[in-house]
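Practice problem: predict the structure.
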Amino acid sequence: MTTAEPPAAGCGDPYKRHPLTTPTPNYSAHLVKHRKALALSILDEGFYCHIGYFDPEANAVRVVPRQYGRSGDSLYIHGPGPAPGSHLGDEHTSRLYRLIAQNRVSDVCVTVSLVDGLALARSAAHAALSYRSVVIYGKALRRAGQQ
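Answer:
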């Protein structure tokens, strides 16, 4: 199990505007909200996320899907790994979790999206998707021994 922790004490409010999450002026800029209660409600309603990280072995950015759960300001990510006490080694653990355990990956981007509606049209250019999403930038930490 892995968790994405909020920034360390003294780093400020993790729910404030960030240059990476502030939209450029376009048709959707007015829809972006930076409210903690709204972000937490989206996280509580969802259960599936995507985690982006830089893979130093492949020298590339990777994005993987995972299940998650939230407790307070921590997001717990569930994924494949050997069972406790198993004779299976690192080759049976997810690449992301192995890199986190080796302290080779720490910065992650977690995205949760909830689809609320789909407006179909005769052409894809005129179709629309209504959704709510949260993008979280944080540090990945391994929580050994927790299931």
